[in-house]
Amino acid sequence: MDDLLKILNELHPDVDFAAEEHLIDNMILDSMDIVSLITEISEVFDVTITARDIVPENFNSAKALYELIARLEDEA
Asked: How many domains does the structure of the chain reveal?
């Protein structure tokens, strides 16, 4: 989780990603942020995020993103 929080904090250092649960709903993350996240997560965690994974539920919080990463790692 620490690596994911580091990636998120590089995008928006002013956001408390450990507590925020509405990153998409509150428009904290935009489409460009999502593209950057997908790239960084793919490189750091060695997973592939597909189009079917790019849904608000997977990107609304750091916890949801971490659960997505864990699921993708298990599938690999």
From this structure: 1
